[in-house]
Amino acid sequence: MYVKPHKIPSVFIIGKHLATRGEAVYGEKTFGEYRVWDPKRSKLAALLKKYENLPLDTQQIVLYLGAASGTTASHLADIVSLIYAVEFAPRVARNLVRMAEQRSNVIPLIADASRPDYGHIVELVDLLYQDIAQKNQADIAIVNAEMFLRSHGYACIFIKARSIDVTAKPKAVYQSQVKKLKEIFDVMHVFDLSPYYKDHAAVITRLI
Ligand code: SAM
N or C end of the chain: smaller count of CB under 10 Å? Predict the structure, then answer.
């Protein structure tokens, strides 16, 4: 098995697979201590397949909105220093809490990101990661960035076009969200996530 380092520290390439190193969480394939990170199961892995220079590093503190059961958050936890993982659906959050019990650098928060009442727990973060598929997700990103993102910190925002407007063309939806995000962010890149995810985009931004 030949393991190559990725440009991003703590990410690896094994054959055609992306991988991180850590304890397996959700039945993913493993090669020894390496966990395969499937771009069809994680939008962040899909984004890494498209763009290698994501602003991710081992020192970062991350606020993750929409952690669900923690699939992506578990890989991100193998990379960064600390994750505040917010999820509002108690049923899926159960697995997130279980995952956080195995990883001391994940703090699960069962909370609504549109009403961020976690200010007494969350500190200033380096990266805001949002994957919530909500109509008002740009507003939610802005509120959270204003409260928790350090100046010039990055945000990585995933947009599912059909969750915002089923009738509009996906590109038009991405543009409307980007326009809103420009109120407080420099928008650096917008990536379409096909073929891994249909009608999804990732927006990489930096707080002005
Ligand atoms: N990021 C996850 C991953 O890659 O493993 C998948 C996230 S899933 C597409 C979206 C999640 O966002 C759902 O679990 C949903 O309950 C959560 N969500 C949606 N709106 C939210 C809100 N306002 N606050 C917190 N969580 C929210």
Answer: N
Residue nearest to atom 13 of ligand 1 (CA): 68
Q: Which of 84, 83, 87, 25 is closest to 58 using CA atoms?
A: 83
CA angle in degrees (0–180, nearest 5) for 70-71-72: 95
Q: Please report which residue ranges of the chain form alpha helices under DSSP H.
A: 43-50, 71-77, 90-102, 137-148, 161-164, 170-181
* 158 close to 201: Cβ distance less than 8 angstroms: yes
CB within 8 Å of 197: residues ≥ 6 apart: 43, 46, 160
Please answer whether residues 45 and 12 qualify as being in contact, where contact means their C-beta atoms are separated by less than 8 angstroms: no
Under-70 pLDDT residues of the chain:
none
Domain ranges of the chain: 38-207
When the candidates are 3.40.50.150, 3.30.565.10, 3.20.20.70, 3.40.50.2300, the CATH number that belongs to 38-207 is 3.40.50.150
Q: For the whole model, what pTM was predicted?
A: 0.98
**Does the C-beta of 159 come closer than 6 Å to ligand 1?**
no
123: DSSP letter: -
What tokens appear for 142 in the block?
């802005």
The answer to whether the CB of 68 is under 6 A from ligand 1 is: yes
Which of these, 9, 172, 120, 142, lies nearest to 65 by C-alpha position? 142
Task: Decide: 64 and 100 in contact? Cβ < 8 Å.
Answer: no
pLDDT at 163: 96
